[in-house]
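Team,

Forwarding the record for the chain on the shared tracking sheet. I've put the sequence and predicted structure together so nobody has to dig through attachments.
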Amino acid sequence: HEAFVAGEVHTGFLAEHFGAWRQPTGAVKLAITAVTLAQYEQQVRSAGRNGYWRNSPNAPLVYRYAEQGEVRLTPKRRPQTGYWLEMWQDVSLEVEGFAWDEARHTAVVITQKRRHTLTLVQNDGVWWVQTSTGIVQLTPEPLLPEPHPPADAGGSLKAPMPGLVLEVLVQVGEQVVEGQALLKLEAMKMEHTIRSGADGVVREIYFTAGEQVTAEAQLLRIESKSHVHDSE
């Protein structure tokens, strides 16, 4: 800038001369394409030729991102190579070729007969993609929901199903540790042990031995060091 060259620099220089400047927007569609294919190749490399067992191998693979939503990937079979990606708002993209050097953090995407070279860096579950127009950040989301542990696995303070309280093993005010048995419940002719999901103090016991409980009934309340533990 001529003012900078002339030495006319002050604390408001950027606001005065570049007030309308915005960080360049990266090529989002291209970045998603590269990250999706990189994840697909990671799965193939780690679990064998087919990546992992699939009930419907001809169905598209689904990838989700916190910033951009869902992407469906269809790898083409030989002799026709390449990929087909369906993105948001009916946006789709055909990829004729893809190469990824994980060690050098570089990827090459060939689409519409054009070659695009990108830089891909993965850190703590987040992908950073340097495109020709800027940087794109992508956060993949897990494809499967978090498992809901059974009562015997610890952490749930609710009845897994309707049943009868057989025995309460703790008292209000008692210190408990993670995994400690708190209460025994009979349901479906089976005995279930409710265990603590964290270290803490028993603050409430809502049922006594011999009482019937309904499914998802809150059985106890435990206060941990940081927050009240009321597991769903």
